[in-house]
Amino acid sequence: MLDALSPMPAAPISLHALASQGFLFATGIENSAPTIQGGRIRRDQMAECGHYDRWKQDLALVKDLGCGVLRYGPQFHTTLRAPGLHDWAFADETFAEVRRLGIVPVVDLCHFGVPDFIGDFQNPDFPQLFADYARAFAARFPWVQLYTPVNEMFITAVFSAKYGWWNEQRHDDRSYVTAIRNIVRANVMAMQAIVQIRPDAIFIQSESTEHFHPECPLALPHAEHRNAERFLTLDLNYGRRVCSSMYEYLMDNGMTREEYHFFQRSAPALKRHCIMGNDWYVTNEHLIGGDGHSRWAGEVFGYDTVTRDYHARYGLPVMHTETNMDEGPRGDEAERWLWKQWSGIMRLRRDGVPVLGFTWYSLTDQIDWNHALREQRGDVNPRGLFDLDRNIRTVGKAYKRLIETWKPVLQAESHCLTLPVSA
Predict the structure, then answer these.
(1) Reduced to 3 states, what is the DSSP secondary structure of residue 96?
(2) Where are the transmembrane segments (predicted)?
(3) What is the pTM for the complete model shown?
(4) What confidence tens digit (pLDDT) does each residue in 289-321 have?
(5) Are 276 and 268 in contact (CB under 8 A)?
């Protein structure tokens, strides 16, 4: 129904209750929804992966795995019908079941796409429209405490306005900087709006963790630029001053000093509500050639080394918020990747980096991510804990064992979990 009062009373999730888990084992329901082909096709992964029809079964599978946390959210493009007009029907049903099962949601409000009436990330009205939407969600579901307002801000801007793959499908620096400005401003304003409703809200910013390696001496300046650029969204989001080269890049491509100062003024007050969520795939390290073009390098440094750089920069608690791997021809590559990621987390914790959670993303296989959703082929990517018939995969069994064996140990180490806001 449209905009009826929520029947569910507020029942805050205690931060102390979260801390008592010792470690947050999570998965997610894939809800990417960018547009392609000039906006004519919407890649709604909830529809393509069958979640709309099997949502109750999917949530039961999360519970059966032993995951206490689920990255999940209503689709932005179907929930916000027009400015101030919301269709909460699907969210009301699904979030009631999430709550009944005792699963802690990390609510994903914008995952790569916007409603048709907004258009794309070049629209200067997007930040305010999104903040209003975030406030409306928080008011309707006041028991929710954990949020990822805009998922992977860096990737959203790069794929939409630099590589030209999604949404506005642009390739120029000015459009790219406009997308960064609007996306991060929307994220900051959404956090401000949510905190007005839920003062102890926690924001787990799922962001892609990247590193760029120079292939030859001529590639050094290109790698230096890209390694500074990868921090832009988080620097702005946390109110950290960017380096001089990035400041010039922003100013040269349309950001005004006042727009930059907005982030410096607004973001630091929110930082105490933040956990640095970071995502890691085999494609997150890149090799830069002398001509400035890049290609995937595979794992060179690995999750723990690159995450250590991000933690040193921002000084926040960390949560590993996404990873996956295809099963591969032998059928065990995903399981091997799971244990590799887990070993990196254990090393970081041993070295004093406060990593408080891990996420295999997503619950089920996905569609067409082998070509980044750019082409509508219907290719099934065997990266989930379950296949699309909801049969558990080898990696799903391994993750369930990992949770069963490690959860009691990590609960006893609850001192390692440092949350930024006290209840």
Answers:
(1) helix
(2) none
(3) 0.94
(4) 999 999 999 999 999 999 999 999 999 999 999
(5) no
Residues 183, 123 contacting (CB under 8 angstroms) = no
Name residue 252's amino acid: D
Region 80-89 average pLDDT:
98
Three-class DSSP category at 210: coil
How is domain 15-416 classified at the CATH fold level? TIM Barrel (3.20.20)
Separation CA 28–CA 176 (nearest Å): 28
- Residue ranges of E strands in 50-103: 69-72, 80-82, 85-86
Residue type, 177: V
Tell me what percent of the residues of the chain surpass a pLDDT of 90: 90
CB distance 348 to 355 below 8 Å? yes
Which amino acid, residue 160? S
Classify residue 401 by burial, with Cβ atoms within 10 Å: 0-12, 13-18, 19+: exposed
Query: Taking the C-alpha atoms of 273, 69, 78 and 163 in order, what is their torsion angle to the nearest 10 degrees?
Result: 70
Q: Which helix (H) or strand (E) holds 285?
A: strand 285-288
* pLDDT per position as a tens digit, 126-152: 999 999 999 999 999 999 999 999 999
With H, G, I as helix, E, B as strand and everything else as coil, classify residue 369.
helix
- The alpha carbons of the chain give a radius of gyration, in whole angstroms, of 20
The Cα-based distances of 43 to 47, 114, 374 in angstroms read 8, 12, 9
Structure tokens at 229: 């650029």
